[in-house]
Design brief:
The structure is a homotetramer.
Chain A (H helix, E strand, L loop, with lengths): L2 H16 L6 H7 L4 H7 L3 H19 L10 H17 L1 H5 L1 H7 L1 H27 L7 H25 L7 H16 L4 H19 L3
Helix pairs in contact in A: 1-4, 4-5, 4-8, 5-10, 7-8, 8-9, 9-10, 10-11
Chain A binds a DNA duplex through helix 3.
DNA sequence: TATGAATGAGCATTCATTCAT
DNA sequence: AATGAATGAATGCTCATTCAT
């Protein structure tokens, strides 16, 4: 792996584990057994590292929430979407835990965040429309967009919510699968008789993951 | 006012205006025309100041969300609750903007937060039950608790959400009245024919406030 | 001596001995056996220290180059002026050695420099006029100002000139007395028969000092 | 052009434009689209680059200030000398702006500077003698050397002086033509009736250049 | 010749906190 | 109660230079 990518990966890991605020650039360099100078050879400053991680986030969102091709729809497709939700939360959990702080310090990043969230909203709306059309969900057309928005808000603040509500020390995969289940619960409210069975299986699937110890 | 209280008030003001992170203890002391040593005579450390502010928060919540006495119910009562929601968000907005950060640094404070939130949840549930009983709302008994929870979550993260979504520089009273309106909108979904008129007047009331310039 | 003044004096000393560029704030603090934090308690930053030294420079120039009272004029008065020239060069030699650099980094300081130099020019002109009137010098009235200017330029760049011309390691008092002698030489060109003797004695006085080993 | 020369030219340009201090070796390499490693293949270190630029300076001085052949003397010859003064100041202005700093860091370079300045002094003296002999100037023989010295000092510190005196942002060609005019003014003081006209034309020539916008 | 990743000592500055008075 | 000088560990970042390829 290239040094630049190693720095990004190590930073992401340390940010997720110890928080972005308390992870210093010297920390990251030391963790990689490299000099701080080399880190600054590859990145202009700490903000630049965060922005590069944000690019990963953008790319992931972009690819994960594309509408599916017509013939594809079955449990696997839905699982891929819910897995993507989980993966996003888990992979970038430091960001969700400090969104206000991180975006508050970097106006350019905030603009990028707004942009990508707008796209996510669009894609999510399309996805829900498709699921309605294919008889998996039953949502009034004028409420689809609001549903997508609710889901986005839930996903965006699930980690913050958990960090303020649970007395545990940190976020585990199980915590995030709980979040996935909450989203599923919202879907369940709009399930059709066709999809009830599928959703039951999905719930079983993620319940099992939510119970797994770290 | 006693020195101790002056410190609390000044800290609250500065935290709200400039953020807790960038408000130093020397800053607070200077703002009060007092020595940092004196500040540390009255408080063990910065955390101690935040804890004292948190006590104000607890007291406010405790007194504001008590069930009303039977004969009272009219528009004024509802306004008093919604005003209390607004007041809480406005008065302690620095906390809402940094909840994860603040609670993450102080486990004892987190425990107090959990406790007070549990009480708020209880009181809110009782309140909703009362409003149903008095024919103002129509919510299935087993859904009342979940409704209270949704409202709490909306209030808790409205400020964070606004700080990440809007590209404006900061939180204004109008922003928070928008939040109050969102909560009202949820209530509206459960309004009875008796209360429809009342809710319309409430909406008018807060819409006007949300439009007022800073 | 107050800590603030001790910092100024130590900084001045270290700047003069080792150059301003290579004298770090930690250096200064260590030299005084104090923490860097304390240094920054008394001064906002390094620039602030330099500005405070510059205030000393301003005050010195202001007091040293006042016109003399009529009855005063004798050798002692002239010696006091030439001594002031020497003292200024010696006391603030780091500044003269790095004028371009120091003023180039701090526009506000440059403005103060321009202002004080304008005042020095005025005072020097008045002084020369007085000396002419008292029969010590004979300069055409329209050339007095230009003479003052030449002297100022000579004093301002004597140290720089010496640092580029001599292969010795540094500036000594003797070097600066040489500079004083050069200025005296200019005066000599305008001496009257009344003052010739006085100037001869002055030259002897400073020649002796210029020959003294460090 | 050879890589080595390209490095020298780029360094000279960047030093003149942005100052030697704030022009890093990586800067120079990037400006040339080359790796820092390659730069260090051609030069041992930054000092080595400066020394190579200094060689250009030496060569220029050596060739520009040679006595003229007897039959040549007319306005053109004088213009060529004054143009050479201008060219030297303009081409190597970063050096004049930081002479103390640059020579203070490199004792060997200082020795070369002393040597070349001695030669310049000699040549300038010869030149003035020739001009006297040819009836263009009238200077007492024992004062010729001192006149040459004064001119050298004026040229050497004109840029430094301007950088400390003007509140403008930087050195322009006009600034340096002003310097040339100052030198001309000194010559004027020793002009003969034969040369008065010539000097007037020279003054006109350089005044026009000094007034030209950048 | 040339690349470009890597080094590492060093710097100005911050801030919660302490403590003698 | 109050002062205010003092602490010191920590932080993000720079840049001339090296060296394996």
């Amino acid at each position: 792996m290239k040094t630049r990518d190693r720095i990004i990966q190590a930073s992401l890991q340390l940010f997720n584990e110890n928080g972005e605020r308390s992870t210093t650039t010297n920390h990251i360099a030391a963790h990689l057994g490299m000099s701080p100078g080399n880190l600054y050879y590859h990145f202009r400053n700490k903000e630049d590292i965060i922005r590069s991680i944000f690019t990963l986030y953008e790319n992931h969102l972009e690819s994960a929430f594309q509408p599916y091709t017509p013939q594809q729809l079955d449990v696997e497709v839905l699982i891929s979407y819910f897995d993507a939700i989980f993966y996003t939360m888990w992979q970038f959990r430091f960001m969700y835990a400090n969104l206000v702080d991180i975006l508050g310090r970097d106006e350019a990043l905030k603009q990028r965040y707004l942009k990508v969230q707008t796209r996510v909203q669009t894609h999510a709306t399309e996805l829900l429309t498709q699921l309605c059309r294919d008889g998996f969900l039953c949502v009034a057309p004028d409420k689809i967009s609001r549903l997508a928005d609710s889901i986005r808000m839930m996903v965006s603040f699930w980690i913050s919510y958990q960090l303020t509500q649970s007395d545990g020390s940190g976020i585990t995969k199980a915590t995030l699968y709980e979040g996935v289940l909450r989203v599923l619960m919202i879907f369940n409210g709009y399930a059709t008789s066709n999809s009830a069975n599928t959703f039951a299986r999905l719930e079983q699937h993620y319940s099992a993951l939510a119970l797994r110890p770290q």
